[in-house]
Amino acid sequence: MTNWLNHHAAWHEWRRAMASDRMHHGWILAGKSGLGKRDFAVAAARELVAENGVHQPEGDHPDILILTHLPKDEKEEKKRDEGKPYQTKRNISVAQIRAMQKRLTTRPTLGSRRAIIIDPADDMEPSASNALLKSLEEPPQGTFFLLVTHRPSRLLPTIRSRCRLLRFPTLSDEELRRMLDESGAADGGARDAAIRAAEGSFGAATRFMDQDMGALADLIERLLGEGDPGFAARGELARAIGPRADRDRIQAALELAQAIVADHARRAIGSAQARALIDTHGELVTLAGQAPTYNFDTGLLAMEIGTLLSSASAASEHANG
């Protein structure tokens, strides 16, 4: 398991709660994506359900239930069962919550405690959130909920009010570099670009490294710095993303663009260009939300990203000013 350098405070609070007379039954594990919240949830759940003198299995634990995105269809389910990458449904359904609640009518298998992990809880359907609320209001004895969330504001206020909050901080550039070194990531410009773009998220940094986003980062910087009056850079961007890019690569490209634009905006505070960069960041966020649900042509999507970046460049500002 990854050695997460940002979990020390969370472990201190969790173990202090476990040592108290009354352990709270609901926990929200909050922080941006890629900070190891699920790893923490699984490790914390194992500590919670373990009992002295009772053998604990190394792999899946019968008293730890994990609810997450299911495969999109039977074809993707077959890929999952074969250990291949597979596409998932967009939401955690009410059927999954109700199936979990049926399990809660029985006693835990190995001890007196059971843990339910929902990851990410902010992707529950509205009906699933309402169903979960009933369990949080009247939790069965010995049942504890760990809700992994990247955007806690998307949870129902009534769910948030019934849970304790554990926040997971982002990692510094030096911590990211150390963790990438420990994971065996290659040194060099690609790693430095990934660290800069990840904005403190180890998950994002490794994703950028896996997708080999160094050349793409250079093109984004070029579009922001020079604009693209002849459309040549936008064509290069489309080729760098790839004509048949899968959803993961498109999402990584959008996240990379958002991160680099945000970095430029922070360094341009107070200027007209800063406002343009902030607006561009918002449009990229919107585009990232739309991309999974629309049948975008990858080339057209790359051109749209390039147009947004070019329009926010200092060169464009001077040309239009």
From TrEMBL:
SUPFAM superfamilies: P-loop containing nucleoside triphosphate hydrolases. This is DNA polymerase III subunit delta. It holds the Pfam family DNA_pol3_delta2. The lineage of its organism: Bacteria, Pseudomonadati, Pseudomonadota, Alphaproteobacteria, Sphingomonadales.
